[in-house]
UniProtKB/TrEMBL annotation:
This is YybS family protein. The keyword Membrane applies. The chain crosses the membrane at residues 13-40, 76-94, 106-126, 168-193, 214-232, 244-263, 275-297. It comes from Alkaliphilus pronyensis. Pfam families: DUF2232. The keyword Membrane applies. The lineage of its organism: Bacteria, Bacillati, Bacillota, Clostridia, Peptostreptococcales. Keywords: Membrane, Transmembrane, Transmembrane helix.
Length: 309
């Protein structure tokens, strides 16, 4: 019986490795698929939940060998470094049936760390600053399209200031990106596991999303420590402050959107109308600060009473 189970797990690992390899190679020859590259951990997460870490590591090794042979070793290395640890960690925590948003939080941390490690490694190898490269690329675009922007009454100086600001907050944006990607990977993986009828995994409702109860104290301490860095030589206080601000603005924004979704669910309207309202709240950018403030208030007073539950 155990031999049959091992054989089944080996076959599934080989199948997942084939799918992952095909997808990883496809993005090179079909560039439009690059926007879906962030879904690469999904089959590996599903494998980790169904068959365990050992077979997922085996699938990762097979995947890296196939992609490495058919493409470039460097591309394969960074693909595995960025997505491999995330798949293993998230698969492990889902298998252990940990709290969904705890799993997402840990996955976000791992994703951000592997992303920064990859960027620092690339920067060390080719001897350039990643943030500066991004900034110079955008400035080059602005310079070449200066006539078009001028005809649209868009100030080139203002565009350069925006580029400078984006360069400063790039680390924060990368962490936000990791958080969004982890959210999507988690929900897609759980949806597939439910479809496969593999144990009783529940798809967490976003309206029940809540930040840790100590988030307020933690954010206060972090802002105080950030402020104190202005008195430390060699530390870019303004850049650090802007990145911390972006991170907390986003996490409270998530809680604010979850709160709005929770309140809308109490109203007797069609589901498509609820979804439309949430989409409008997300795309209307001037509401970002207001929704973040709502999320902050909900974190302090637990208006939805989720902690009691």
């Amino acid at each position: 019986m155990e031999l049959n189970n091992n054989k089944k797990a080996m076959i599934e690992a080989a199948f997942i490795a084939t799918i992952s390899s095909f997808f990883g190679i496809s993005v090179i020859y079909i560039p439009v698929l690059t926007i879906l590259l962030f879904l690469l951990p999904v089959p590996l997460i599903v494998l980790a939940v169904r068959q365990g870490t050992k077979y997922t590591v085996l699938a990762l090794i097979i995947t890296s060998l196939i992609i490495g042979i058919l493409t470039e070793v460097v591309f394969t290395f960074f693909l595995i470094i960025i997505f491999g640890p995330v798949a293993l960690i998230m698969g492990y925590y889902i298998k252990k049936k940990q709290e969904p948003f705890k799993t997402i939080g840990i996955g976000t941390t791992v994703s951000a760390l592997t992303t920064f490690i990859s960027i620092l490694t690339i920067s060390a190898i080719v001897e350039f600053n990643f943030a500066d490269l991004i900034g110079e690329t955008f400035r080059s675009v602005v310079e070449h399209q200066s006539e078009m922007f001028t005809s649209m009454n868009v100030s080139i100086t203002s565009l350069n200031e925006i580029i400078d600001y984006l360069t400063i907050i790039l680390p924060g944006l990368l962490i936000v990106h990791s958080m969004v990607i982890t959210f999507i990977n988690y929900y897609v993986s759980i949806a597939i596991l439910r479809r496969l009828r593999f144990q009783a995994y529940k798809l967490p409702r976003f309206r029940h999303f809540k930040l840790p109860s100590n988030i307020i104290l933690g954010s206060f301490i972090l802002f105080i420590l950030t402020y104190l860095t202005r008195f430390v030589a060699g530390i870019n206080y303004e850049g650090l402050y802007e990145n911390i601000k972006i991170l907390f603005l986003f996490v409270f924004y998530l809680q604010g959107i979850a709160f709005m979704r929770y309140m809308i669910s109490k109203v007797s309207i069609p589901e498509f109308a609820r979804v439309l309202i949430i989409v409008l709240l997300i795309i209307i950018s001037p509401l970002l600060t207001l929704i973040s403030l709502i999320g902050l208030i909900d974190s302090v007073f637990d208006i939805r009473k989720l902690r009691e539950e």
